[in-house]
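Input set for joint prediction.
Command: fold jointly, output tokens.
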Amino acid sequence: MAKKKSRKQPAAKAPMTYKDAGVDIDAGEAMVEGIRTLVEKTYSPRVVGALGGFAGLFSLDFDEDLLKRKYHDPILVSCCDGVGTKLKVAFRTGKLDTVGIDLVAMNVNDLICIGAEPLFFLDYVAVGRLDPERMRDIIAGISNGCVQSGCALLGGETAEMPDFYKTKEFDMAGFAVGVVERNKIINGSGVRAGDSIIALASDGLHSNGYGLARKVIFSKAKFKPSDTPAELEGQTVAQAMLAPTRIYVKAVRAVLAAYKRRNMVRAMAHITGGGLPGNLPRVLPDGLTARLKRSGWKPQGIFELIAKAGPVDQVEMFRVFNMGVGFVMVVSPYRASAVMNRLRKAHQRCWQIGKVVKGGPSIQWA
Amino acid sequence: MAKKKSRKQPAAKAPMTYKDAGVDIDAGEAMVEGIRTLVEKTYSPRVVGALGGFAGLFSLDFDEDLLKRKYHDPILVSCCDGVGTKLKVAFRTGKLDTVGIDLVAMNVNDLICIGAEPLFFLDYVAVGRLDPERMRDIIAGISNGCVQSGCALLGGETAEMPDFYKTKEFDMAGFAVGVVERNKIINGSGVRAGDSIIALASDGLHSNGYGLARKVIFSKAKFKPSDTPAELEGQTVAQAMLAPTRIYVKAVRAVLAAYKRRNMVRAMAHITGGGLPGNLPRVLPDGLTARLKRSGWKPQGIFELIAKAGPVDQVEMFRVFNMGVGFVMVVSPYRASAVMNRLRKAHQRCWQIGKVVKGGPSIQWA
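tokens >
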């Protein structure tokens, strides 16, 4: 048991007499030891150490630079999400060390939409059969995602449930907690007609639409994971289907840090299931909507491949997939190019995708 | 979407073209509407309202009575747990409205071990097929558990994953956040030889050992859920197997509130998988262990039934099950009877089970 981790050894959920059950306590201990360094590299001085192991502890205050001074009236922000059936692609290819990035991304990208700073993350992984090496891969991805988003991996639970999951399969869920200054909560209330809508590039499918994507790619078009159709420009199908969900924390927080004055960034949306039409309108006030120019960008090849192989029409593609836009920022039109410069300095591709207009609730295509 | 809930409609994970996929968006909306009141009855003034829905918001401070004044140096505490294969008993009996209590209990009972006040809870429920009525039952249990433990149900995720779960089956994970004053963290460091060990009665199996329990009760002894073996004293097998995990928050916090001086309550342990031998030593300092007198109490009939029907020997029973003791408090011997009086006033059955002695790491039986 890592000293500050509430991750319990999977034996805690062990069925039968431990001997008869074939639950391997050694495997559980090997796993906990194997992931210790992965977990500890996510720690900051705000993780409170050396405690029993029933729960993870986290201080809002740094020892030196009191967070109290940074956050006058801190509001905790929390969310929960899973990865969905993208996991099936990981099972099929055996590549398990990136779905953890997806898991963290799906949560922290939600947190930052309201302007929060991610603080810590916990994971639940339920496996059919505990295999320390496979668990190590899974946790390596989660640890990677936590480092990318500045989150401490504060705890987790590994449950071995052979009655629920096949031997080599698993499900996972993640929980993230962040903090935001109350008077800096970004909730769309400052959005005005004429505001600029900035698209932040995705890294492909991210973690949504895999029911359709898998059906088209594997069942209908019968691609093998190692195939390299022309649309993927040298990538294999496996690489395109498993590309991790992009984590927008650093780029978005760089912008927020530069514009401390309230109301420069007026709304943000993480583009998940439902795509742009499903996620952008929900952060805009009633009576306003987004007018987007479709010609402004070209989605990645994987989207083209799915649309052709389905075939799936464009309206449906935009309803199910992010179509190359993983995150959207709505900003004052006078700051749009400055914001985009900051995003690019943070290595985030971006472009102005449209603007806010009167109307709604559906988005409009220019 | 309930105004403060990050619970996404399950369509967010929808596979295929939405129409073809048979994912029922109406069912998702019906579910969200159906659970709204269940969720809102867990809210306190600290839940921050009227926001977009990407995440749940929670203020450490009350409007009036600033938590800052109560917590000089707040430490956030977080943990994550599931219910394990007790869910299979719920599937078999069709009674789904109590496993949510188990889910909350497994988490908040861990939180309070270090002296924390539970603040909020989030759930992940992954289903084979979304059925609004069944989801309502599941969430009713979670809401009930949150009310019992003074937690706001701040958010959740419902994922419909027909490739992972059978139509009427599901898995669930929970995540709780609490807060504790830094200098009141209870971590066992104050434990001394001679301290009294107080057992808090369990309500039966709670949420551990179901691999063995189900095997013995259903596969070996072939009991039906409606059977009423003499050991259960009028309860059915289903009732005994589904009795919700007891939530110790109110009783334990009543004791902590009464003894504000540090170090009166010296260690606490939630007795889960591994039983007393697996959970009590881990909260005691090196060089000290627990000497328990086995004759001091009689475990519930369900334990007797399992031991007989297995047969399972007593050592194994104590390693797998809580054996009637769901929570343990280690207190100053001079306060033991006062603590027990307070627990009883909070309607918690309890008794002195033994004391702390030199030795370790295994517990000793007197």
